[in-house]
Amino acid sequence: MEPVRTLAAALADGVLLLDGGLSNQLEAQGCDLSDALWSARLLADDPEQIEAAHTAYARAGAQVLITSSYQATFEGFERRGISAERAAALLRRSVSLARSAAAGAPHEVWVAASVGPYGAMLADGSEYQGRYGLSVRELERFHRPRIEALAAAEPHVLALETVPDTDEAEALLRAADGCGVPVWLSYTVAGGRTRAGQELAEAFALATGRSEVIAVGVNCCEPAEAASAVGLAAAVTGKPAVVYPNSGEQWDPAARSWRGGSLYDPALVRDWQAAGARLVGGCCRVGPDRITELARLLGRN
To answer: Using CB atoms within 10 A of its CB, is residue 107 exposed (0-12), middle (13-18) or buried (19+)?
Structure first.
């Protein structure tokens, strides 16, 4: 159902449950995501599958649905012969599909429009390294058009997610400034640092004093990294923390497949809460079954 509160107000009241990985749910539904556009291809080719995936998470208890726009960019669509006008419409569609799924839930569901990093457009795993050789200004120019297109669809929040370094975080925050939609900022981390190797305290501090940023944290990292990063994010910024790790499996960009076994334990949510997390969920390879377990642990079902 449509929320009666802003997301910021809801976070002040307690913990909210995010969804899990969209791509793994789409694959479970039989979708082929081998294309460079990944799940964004389905915005044009099979949008009903995206709505079905969102619906699966809403039924599992998710209170926030993240759109299928992570890898959706004007540049990526252009390579497929899709005009800028059509691309903007597809970005807006990503929000409407999530809204449609949310409408059928018996509880409040917020829609977060995903804004993935520049590396996601390259489709070569670059988002797990950062440092693309582009300036902050160049990255800002890349991100601004799709942020504007997504904001025009009126999501409840923009998820600036899987950010690998501080340059891209600064560019994203600049591009989102004045768009009229609140944001959360979420880094992908490894070894207690950003993927580019920067100090996390420095990275989180970029959100300090920005009223449009309603939560700060980490996503698409190993579950073991989450609690300490969440505690630091909350301590540095004084804002609610967001955390949605992946399964702990390793992505092989050359083979376009995951390696290893799952390390995601829903019981870790207690540690995340204690560290200051107010938005909790899962990322890649974390499916509706795990979100159902989180919902149970949080007393949501």
So the answer is: middle
Q: How many CB atoms lie within 10 A of CB 125?
A: 14
Give the span between the Cα atoms of 57 and 98, in whole angstroms.
Answer: 10
Per-residue pLDDT of the chain (301 residues; tens, 9 = 90+): 999 999 999 999 999 999 999 999 999 999 988 887 888 899 999 999 999 999 999 999 999 999 999 999 999 999 999 999 999 999 999 999 999 999 999 999 999 999 999 999 988 888 888 889 999 999 999 999 999 999 999 999 999 999 999 999 999 999 999 999 999 999 999 999 999 999 999 999 999 999 999 999 999 999 999 999 999 999 999 999 999 999 988 777 677 677 888 889 999 999 999 999 999 999 999 999 999 999 999 987 6
CB 67 within 8 A of CB 91: no
* Burial per residue of 180-206, b for 16 or more beta-carbon CB atoms within 10 angstroms, e otherwise: ebbbbbbbbbeeebbbbebebeebbeb
- Strands 241-244 and 213-219: what pairing? parallel
Rounded Cα distance, 162 and 125, in Å: 11
User: What tokens appear for 211 in the block?
Assistant: 């009223």
Q: Which residues contact 268 (CB under 8 A, 6 or more apart)?
A: 223, 226, 227
Give CA separation, 55 vs 19, 52, 60, 158, in Å. Answer: 10, 5, 9, 20
Structure token pair of residue 288: 């509706």
Q: How many residues does the chain have?
A: 301
**Whole-angstrom distance, CA of residue 190 vs CA of residue 116:** 18
Helix axes 136-152, 84-103, angle to 10 degrees: 50
Rounded distance between C-alpha atoms, residue 122 and residue 295, angstroms: 35
- Show the DSSP H helices in 38-135 as ranges: 41-45, 47-60, 74-79, 84-103, 118-122
